[in-house]
Amino acid sequence: MDKTQIRETIARRAALELKDGDVVNLGIGLPTMIPSFLPEGVHVMLQSENGMIGMGPTPEEGKEEAIWTNAGGGYITAVPGAATFDSATSFALIRGGHVDVSILGALEVDEEGDLANWIIPGKMAPGMGGAMDLLDGTKLVILAMEHTAKGRAKILKKCRLPLTAKGQVNLIITEMCVIEVRKGEGLVVTELNPEFSREDVIANTEATLTFASDLKPMRQ
User: Fold this and answer.
1) Does an H or E element contain 141, and which?
2) Distance CA 178, CA 38 (A)
3) 190: buried, middle or exposed (CB in 10 Å: 19+, 13-18, 0-12)?
4) What's the Cα-to-Cα distance from 100 to each of 75, 115, 117, 172, rounded to whole Å?
5) Catalytic annotation present for 49
């Protein structure tokens, strides 16, 4: 699989976790592709930490409005019914449990559902932004991530980088498989991409994995 196929496979599978009417926060990068793959009849409201619910698609070139940006500074549009508010209200929504799903990328995740996604070694780190609040305040936390980084495992026995949050990840979706983080059981592979074998997944994962007895082909 090339880079584009990998990213589309992950985004397409992650989109299947969203239900009609969900309030969803998407992290930067790969997660922003997910709205393009929503199943027919599923409409979600995208929330941004800087103060908006109801983000629409990226505007056409030349039609950007400087006041309409997401938390990462990218230009956005608004869908009918959108609402804007200050960041204090935005974080009150997040901390109050009113965001149904957060889908983030990851630098590292481990067997306990701990996540590290804000410090890239050797680069300036401005801070973790709203990720800490999203991980703790959202009902369902999904990681949409490539299985490895330049051949290096990202799903580890224990995170090595500074953590964003401990024990908050519920589901990991990669190009190879879908992994549930289960309390007391660790990482359980529930779906496997037919293009990969169990041995492929194990070879590219440092963490200990259990394969579900009812393991299914990865949905798309």
Assistant:
1) strand 140-144
2) 18
3) middle
4) 24, 19, 20, 16
5) yes
Please give the radius of gyration of the chain, using alpha carbons only, rounded to the nearest integer: 17
Q: Which two tokens stand for residue 180?
A: 């549930």
Q: Which residues of 115-125 are buried (b: 16+ CB within 10 A; e: fewer)?
A: bbbbbeeeeee
pLDDT tens per residue, range 150-208: 999 999 999 999 999 999 999 999 999 999 999 999 999 999 999 999 999 999 999 99
**Cα(15)–Cα(11) distance, integer angstroms:** 6
d(CA 117, CA 85): 27
Q: Which of 49, 146, 175, 180 is catalytic?
A: 49
SS3 state at 126: coil
Q: Do 111 and 153 form a contact (C-beta atoms < 8 A)?
A: no
Q: Coil, helix or strand for 85?
A: coil
Residue type, 152: R
- pTM of this structure: 0.93
Please state, in angstroms and rounded to a whole number, the distance separating the CA atoms of residues 184 and 169.
Answer: 14
Angle (nearest 5°) at CA 67 between 65 and 68: 70
